[in-house]
Amino acid sequence: MELRERVMAGMKQAMKDKNTTRVSTLRLINAAIKDRDIAARGEGREEGVGDADVLAILGKMVKQRQESARQYEEASRFDLAEQELVEIKVIEDFLPRQLNDDEVAAAVDAAITAVEGSSIRDMGKVMGVLKEKYTGQMDFGAVGPMVKNRLS
C-alpha cells in the first residue's frame, strides 16, 4: 500500500476509534502532503509527490517536533513537550525502521563503493545515493560528517 494511502487509512481508523490526538496529527500529515502536491504541480509534476517525498515530509515533521519538545522542556512546559512527543510517535508509525549505527556505516561504505568515491568532491554523489535508498531510515545530518570523514 502506498504511504499516502496508509496515512488516510490510519486517519479513518483513528476517527472510528475517536482518538483525537492521532486524528489531528494525521490531518497535519495530510495537509503537508497536499501542500507538497500543490508545489509539485506548479513545477510540472502533475502526479504530485511520491513515497520518497512523503518520507522526507514525515522525517522533517519528526525533526520539527523534536526541536519543539526540546524547547518546551527548556522552558519547563512539560505538558506541551509531552504533546509533541506523542505526535512524534504517531508520525513514526508511518516511517520505516531506523537503521542502527552498524547498518548506517555499512550503507555509507556501500554508497562510497557504488559511486567510486575517493575524495571529498564525491560527497554529493554519495549523499545522493544514500538519500535515494535510505530516506526516512537514517538521520542525514549525522551521516554527513561520517561520509566526510570516510572520504577525507
Characterise this structure.
This protein has two domains: 3-92, Hypothetical Protein Yqey, Chain: A, domain1, CATH 1.10.1510; 101-151, Arc Repressor Mutant, subunit A (Orthogonal Bundle). By secondary structure, the chain is mainly α. The chain is 76% helix and 0% strand. It has seven helices and no strands. The protein is globular. Helix 2 (20-42) packs across helix 4 (78-92). This is Glutamyl-tRNA(Gln) amidotransferase subunit E. It comes from Thalassovita autumnalis. It holds the Pfam family YqeY.
Q: Which CATH architecture of the largest domain is right?
A: Orthogonal Bundle
According to CATH, what is the class of the largest domain?
Mainly Alpha
CATH superfamily of the largest domain: Uncharacterised protein YqeY/AIM41, N-terminal domain
Average pLDDT confidence is 88
Please tally the β strands and state the result: 0
**Cα distance, first to last residue?**
41 Å
Specify the overall morphology. Answer: globular
CATH domain topology of the largest domain:
Hypothetical Protein Yqey, Chain: A, domain1
Domains (count): 2
* Helix/sheet category: mainly alpha
Number of helices: 7
H/E element order? HHHHHHH
Which value, in Å, is the CA radius of gyration?
18 Å
Proportion in β-strands: under 5%
Show unreliable segments. none
**Biggest sheet: strands, sense, closure?**
none
